[in-house]
Amino acid sequence: MLSNKHSKLLIIGSGPAGYTAAIYGARANLKPLLITGLNKGGQLITTNLIENWPGDFKNITGYNLMDRMYKHAKKFETEIIFDYIKKTNFKKTPFLLIGEKNTYTCNSLIIATGASAKYLKIPSVEFYKGKGISTCATCDGFIYKNKKVAVIGGGNNAIEETLYLSNIANEVHLIHRRNKFKAEKILINRLIEKIKKKKIFIHTNYIVEKINGNGKIVTSIDIKKFNHNNNNNIKNILINGIFFAIGQKPNTEIFNGQLKLKNGFIKVKNKEYNKTQTNINGIFAAGDVIDKFYRQAITSAASGCMAALDAEHYLENIL
């Protein structure tokens, strides 16, 4: 039988938003309890190099940054539990959350469950997941040393993955459905240098038509011109692995029917104050679950701070 743990402030999620909320909540003497989720440290732990975290001008890995945040939260005596919330009940207070290890009740809740990488919705993608398809170059790139790989996408993440893989693989094919990349200029400049060295090959205005394999592993990819139905526009590229970097979907499925969502993102009031308040008093949200535009570690951390301050103000008025 699951045991119950009660806290004034419960935080679910252990990315920059969750840990920052814990630090601010603990300093306000709210004695927060943080549930990490399955992916302790969030998506950032898969980032090999962070160059834009203020103060870390010598660069830092995502894993090291999240480890520092974890230790910072622990310094202020945040209780951190490795557990996964699978069901919630927000119809009455205290709010109820059911995890794999325990049940939890709380007077106030901060949701910082982050987002997960997207895949293309084609049958061959589903079949070859784990058989040559990945969403994390720093996790799986070593498998493709001296081999050929493809990266799908056109934003910062796609370019970062491509640059990282170019130091491991023989060839990296970057496939983007537009003719321009959305990534930062500094990343584009580095990409251009790698293209000159023939380590990276660009395929713009192309989309993935099919992923081919031998039933066990990926062997090639078919791409075709975007918005062209003519089969003569299809190119086949021999590769050993594919990395998707086409965006994220917020991890909010368990809140369907309880919190107001828009395209999967939690809606917050975003008023002059109490910006992180959801449609339920006492429940706040921060990080990638509310942000479809900025999606930066620094903005997630900032919203985690705001959520903790909003929760503190709420608890002062009810306790």
Element order, helices and strands? Answer: EHEHEEEEEHEHEHEHEEEEEEEEEH
Q: What is the SS-derived class?
A: alpha/beta
Approximate shape: elongated
Percentage of β-strand residues: 25-35%
Tally the helices: what do you get? 7
Task: Report the strand count.
Answer: 19
Characteristic terms for this protein:
7 helices, seven-stranded mixed sheet, alpha/beta, 319 residues, 19 strands
Task: Give the SSE map.
Layout lengths: L2 E10 L3 H12 L5 E3 L26 H14 L3 E3 L3 E5 L5 E5 L2 E10 L3 E3 L5 H6 L4 E2 L2 H4 L7 E5 L3 H11 L4 E6 L8 H12 L3 E5 L1 E8 L4 E8 L9 E4 L2 E4 L3 E3 L10 E2 L2 E2 L16 E3 L11 H22 L1
Parallel strand pairs: 1-2, 1-6, 2-3, 6-19, 8-15, 9-10, 9-15, 10-11
Antiparallel strand pairs: 4-5, 5-6, 7-16, 12-13, 13-14, 17-18
Helix pairs in contact: 1-2, 1-7, 5-6
What is the structure about, briefly put?
With 319 residues, the protein is α/β, with parallel strands linked by helices. It has helices spanning 16-27, 62-75, 123-128, 137-140, 156-166, 185-196, 297-318; strands at residues 3-12, 33-35, 79-81, 85-89, 95-99, 102-111, 115-117, 133-134, 148-152, 171-176, 200-204, 206-213, 218-225, 235-238, 241-244, 248-250, 261-262, 265-266, 283-285.
